[in-house]
Known about the structure:
Layout: H1 10-20, E1 25-28, H2 33-37, E2 43-45, H3 46-62, E3 70-74, H4 79-90, E4 94-97, H5 104-114, E5 118-122, E6 124-125, E7 128-129, H6 130-139, E8 146-150, E9 159-160, H7 161-165, E10 182-190, E11 193-200, H8 201-215, E12 222-225, H9 232-245, E13 248-251, H10 257-266, E14 271-275, H11 276-283, H12 287-290, E15 296-301, E16 320-326, E17 330-335, E18 348-352, E19 360-367, E20 372-376, E21 404-412, E22 419-423, E23 428-431, E24 434-437, H13 439-446, E25 453-459, E26 463-469, H14 473-482, H15 487-490
Parallel strand pairs: 1-13, 3-4, 3-5, 4-10, 5-8, 8-9, 12-13, 12-14, 14-15, 15-16
Antiparallel strand pairs: 1-2, 6-7, 10-11, 16-17, 18-19, 19-20, 20-21, 21-22, 23-24, 25-26
Helix pairs in contact: 1-9, 3-4, 5-6, 8-9
Amino acid sequence: MNQPAVSPTLDTLFQRTLMRQPHAPALLDPLNKARVTGHQPRRMTYAEADTAIEALSAYFVESGLPANSVIAIQLPATVEFVLTVLAAHRAGLVVAVLPLLWRHAELTAALNRTAARAIVTMSTVDGVSYADLAMHAAAEAFSIRHVCGFGGDLPEGMASLDDVLARPPGTTRAVIQDGRKAAMISFDVTAEGFRPVPRPHFSVIAGGLAMSLEADIRQGATVMAAFTPMSFAGLASSLAVWLLSGGALALHHPFENDVLEQQINEHECEVLIAPAQLALRLGDADLAARMPTLRNVIGLWRAPEQVAASDAWIAPHAPLTDVYLFGEAGLFGARRGEDGMPVAVMPGPHGAPREQSGSSIAGEILLTPKGTLGLRGAMVPIAAYAPPQPVGDTLIAQPPRDYVDTGYAARLDRPSGAICITAPPSGIMAVGGYRFLSNDLQEWARRLGQGALLTALPDRLSGHRLAGRAQDNTRAREALSELGLNPLMVEAFRDRSGPV
């Protein structure tokens, strides 16, 4: 009897490389990890990583977490993040990724909306106690049964995963490896509000394939990921690209330029994946002489409307691939030509690589009747973005929609027929990877006191940055903390124009 073909999972891809080259380098920590988290940097082979994954997976099973339940993860770009994600999948769990800049209110909402059974975090990141944030959020999420952390000085009641890694693996659980099963839940902000976005394994892998094939990443390459991993784009550009290439993954906690350059040279990285504006700045600084081992650069655009007006890429030894990000809805990539300028993106199906005839279809780009950009394809979670049911029509079936409306304003260029993305979704602000409704600014400013100002200013690196002014900055920080803003945002409040 023939067995039906099943698509691979992320753990399947890891184990394929493990069987082929168990002693090859797999994971490389940031060189400044001791400053960021208090841990010393680790370098792990595939065999060492597998032992750690087995130990963490066994702990999740022994803790009583049922198969297909949700485990929330709020971790920086370190080895612990990769190990935890793969261990959760090996135990048959679904990973919900929680951005580091989230407010307490968003953490609690995400845990409750997903009915997460456990949360994993780091004791401190950049001096902020994420262990305390996790404990407070878990206290308001009735589904949470286990709070786990890496690092020292964990609060009472939080299990130490460092201790788990120090002992031999225990109980295992048989899990069917099928790429159609749920792998992750990320979170988006749309005009309708806060939205969980679930994805199966094949969707995450499709995102990684779209990047790696368009950029022509060779098998066995050492990949430097300098993009926050707590999103679909973050997982696809780090975990999926690494597993598809079968090489080594070097991680960088954004951003320290000198440390990043040192890491690239020390690890002889061939691929750099980073926010596009950062990549362009590096490209202007004699990239060939300073980082000679680079052969591919992938720039991720959180503000895709800025691509067309960006500067030319002037490092021909390491071609740049522009990756357009549309929140958690999806992405597509386009490798620049010899002139270093962004290439025209045409509507319709697009392959990976884009210019190669007969290549596999990575997705489809379309212009919606509302004059916005739509996406469809294997990586696009159409059901998660289904429009709300009209009031009074609950018994009437709505016509099916086979694409996601990203909300980005777009038009067709008449001479070339290319898609031109002109503006981000209305009413949504983005500070780095942190997205929120612009109406939230009014509430935050009201709490700062009389004469205070809080606004979002355009920023080429992060999309927007929060800038504020208050008569009493100490009281302003207290007010923002009361609203649940993450301390990394609150502590940066300045008299006039510093980012919050």
